[in-house]
């Protein structure tokens, strides 16, 4: 059969054990026709075949981020990016500079706040009131689990005291019952976020498209999107049918909260099979706990401040029922479970509902930041996917003074991001970024998975060295691991019949050091045999 495109003069890591290397790839009808050497030219070339000389560049299966929020991120990354700022004076200076540019009634927005900013100080509206000049202000912490609102923002949102939520969300109050400005978990902070002016549909579309193109430019060809609703699917449809389509393949989850009603279930089930050319649904995303940093992760034993005893669901039994409802309706289920007890409860629920979705893919657990030994073995025995983000260790301090480590005793902190143990146990592993929580650039994610320390700083502290992954294992986490987690059997490796999603690197990502990898140029990305991104020059 004649090829549409033949890539020649490449160093190819197929990640297919039966044929691990080749130098030529023939592509036709969006799929890989054949792999081998230049002999393929004689077999598959005709007058219309495009021959692309890659000049010795390295080809791997397309990188896929196993967990990110590119669409929600278009909204939550509005305003000042506080990434890397841990000094309170610099933080308030930035706020002041922003507030001075705004008129009355305009909102100060910011994201990517580090908990370290508030070490030894309360997360409070009072602490920013002077800097924001009394303007409404909404700031989101890097993990998307905590927000800080100014007094004016609280007033505009009608928040004057506490409130009961259908999940573990909380309006934090001071000793006399006034809101401090700290809002824990989405249902609480959405009250303020939804009061702030929203992007118009047109601007949202534009921002999402820009973000997806930036993502493609870092070598990604796909991602699992961990939140959405049927309106998100409408947006993806619009993006796909305008301009040049989606620059990354997306599997997009639908959300269900503890307070969601039967209408949500009906709407989600009705949207289950919606898809476009490069996106599809079929996934439900649930939360079973929050984050360790604020005491909202669900732990077998309380954290060092006596917290961690409750799940995101007031009745965890309802979570298990919800898993069953969606599994029976044909969905794959992904559950956010960070604390050891949340992970154990997610495994229980999956075992109860049947660990495989109708698609054949196992259900999946997201994050697994503190994984108990007995649950590691249960995870592996059941074949449940562990979807992890080792680059989230960038917020840990070597001396254990950070909010994550200090909330756990040393015994449990040693069970952090057990990527090496997960692989050794035989459980499937997918890697990702959770952007906008951390950088979407998979080269950074790969480097953290390999190094477990800050890339580019060889002297930096290495967290749990035994959990480091080899270059090959890390690459598998962002390719075969992430695509299998989605239930895709024809992606993630370069073999005849598979869809031709490829990442082309200036040099071999398996041969360069992890410190160099973060600067390794991406030559091009390809989806279904179409070149999506190409580096200039
Ligand atoms: Zn996430």
Write up this protein.
By secondary structure, this protein is an alpha/beta fold. 29% of the residues lie in helices and 21% in strands. It has 19 helices and 24 strands. Strands 8-15-16-17-18-19-20-21 form an 8-stranded parallel beta sheet. Strands 3-2-7-22-23-24 form a 6-stranded mixed beta sheet, with no helix packed on it. Helix 10 links the parallel strand 17 and strand 18. Helix 10 crosses helix 11. It starts with a strand and ends with a strand. The structure holds zinc ion. Zinc ion binds next to loops.
End-to-end Cα distance, whole Å, is 33 Å
Average predicted local confidence, pLDDT: 96
As a percent range, the share of strand residues is 15-25%
Oligomer: single chain
Give a quick rundown of the structure.
The chain has 537 residues and is an alpha/beta fold.
Lay out the secondary structure.
Layout: E1 5-8, E2 11-13, E3 21-22, E4 24-28, E5 31-36, H1 39-44, E6 50-53, E7 58-61, E8 63-68, H2 72-76, E9 80-81, H3 88-100, E10 108-113, H4 126-129, E11 137-141, E12 146-149, H5 151-156, E13 170-173, E14 179-184, H6 186-193, H7 201-216, E15 220-225, H8 230-240, E16 249-255, H9 262-270, E17 279-287, H10 316-328, E18 332-337, H11 340-353, E19 364-367, H12 373-382, E20 385-388, H13 403-407, H14 410-413, H15 419-425, E21 429-431, H16 442-451, H17 471-477, H18 480-485, E22 502-505, H19 514-517, E23 522-527, E24 530-534
Parallel strand pairs: 1-6, 2-7, 8-15, 9-10, 10-11, 15-16, 16-17, 17-18, 18-19, 19-20, 20-21
Antiparallel strand pairs: 1-4, 2-3, 4-5, 7-22, 11-12, 12-14, 13-14, 22-23, 23-24
Helix pairs in contact: 10-11, 11-12
The protein binds zinc ion.
Residues 67, 69, 226, 434 line the site of zinc ion.
């Amino acid at each position: 059969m004649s090829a549409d495109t033949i890539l020649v003069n490449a160093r190819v890591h197929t990640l297919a054990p039966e044929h691990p290397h080749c130098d030529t790839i023939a592509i036709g009808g969006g799929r890989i026709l054949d792999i081998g050497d230049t002999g393929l030219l004689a077999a598959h070339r005709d007058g219309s075949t495009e021959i692309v000389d890659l000049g010795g560049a390295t080809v791997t299966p397309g990188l896929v981020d196993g967990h990110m929020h590119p669409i929600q991120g278009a909204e939550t990354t509005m305003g000042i990016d506080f990434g890397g700022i841990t000094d309170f004076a610099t933080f308030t200076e930035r706020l002041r500079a922003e507030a001075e540019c705004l008129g009355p009634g305009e909102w100060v927005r910011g994201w990517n706040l580090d908990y370290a900013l508030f070490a030894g100080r309360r997360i409070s509206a009072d602490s920013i009131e002077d800097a924001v000049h009394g303007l409404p202000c909404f700031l989101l912490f890097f993990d998307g689990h905590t927000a800080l609102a100014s007094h004016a923002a609280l007033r505009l949102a009608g928040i004057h005291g506490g409130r009961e939520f259908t999940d573990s969300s909380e309006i934090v109050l001071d000793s006399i019952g006034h809101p401090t400005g700290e809002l824990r978990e989405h249902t609480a902070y959405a009250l303020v976020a939804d009061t702030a002016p929203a992007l118009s549909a047109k601007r949202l579309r534009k921002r999402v498209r820009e973000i997806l193109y930036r993502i493609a430019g870092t070598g990604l060809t796909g991602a699992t999107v961990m939140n959405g609703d049927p309106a998100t699917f409408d947006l993806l449809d619009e993006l796909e049918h305008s301009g040049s389509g989606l620059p990354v393949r997306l599997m997009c989850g639908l959300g269900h909260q503890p307070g969601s009603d039967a209408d949500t279930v009906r709407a989600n089930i009705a949207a289950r099979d919606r898809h476009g050319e490069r996106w599809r649904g079929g996934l439900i995303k649930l939360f079973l706990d929050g984050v360790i940093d604020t005491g909202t992760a669900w732990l077998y034993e309380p954290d060092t401040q006596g917290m961690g005893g409750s799940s995101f669901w007031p009745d965890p039994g309802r979570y298990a029922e919800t898993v069953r409802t969606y599994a029976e309706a044909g969905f794959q289920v992904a559950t956010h479970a960070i604390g050891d007890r949340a992970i154990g409860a997610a495994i229980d629920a999956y075992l109860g509902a049947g660990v495989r979705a109708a698609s054949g893919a196992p259900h999946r657990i997201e994050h697994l930041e503190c994984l108990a030994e007995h649950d590691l073995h249960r995870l592996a025995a059941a074949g449940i996917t562990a979807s992890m983000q080792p680059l989230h260790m960038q917020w840990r301090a070597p001396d254990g003074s950070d909010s994550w480590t200090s909330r756990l005793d040393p015994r449990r902190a040693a069970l952090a991001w057990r990527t090496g143990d997960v692989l050794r146990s035989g459980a499937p592993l997918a890697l990702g970024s959770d952007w906008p929580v951390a950088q979407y650039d998979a080269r950074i994610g790969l480097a953290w998975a390999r190094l477990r320390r800050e890339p580019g700083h060889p002297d930096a502290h290495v967290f749990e060295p035994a959990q480091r992954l080899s270059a090959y294992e890390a690459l598998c986490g962002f390719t075969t691991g992430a695509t299998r987690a989605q239930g895709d059997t024809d992606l993630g490796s370069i073999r005849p019949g598979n869809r031709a999603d490829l990442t082309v690197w200036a040099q071999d990502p398996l041969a360069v050091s992890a410190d160099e990898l973060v600067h390794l140029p991406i030559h091009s990305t390809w989806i279904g045999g179409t070149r999506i991104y190409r580096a200039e020059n």
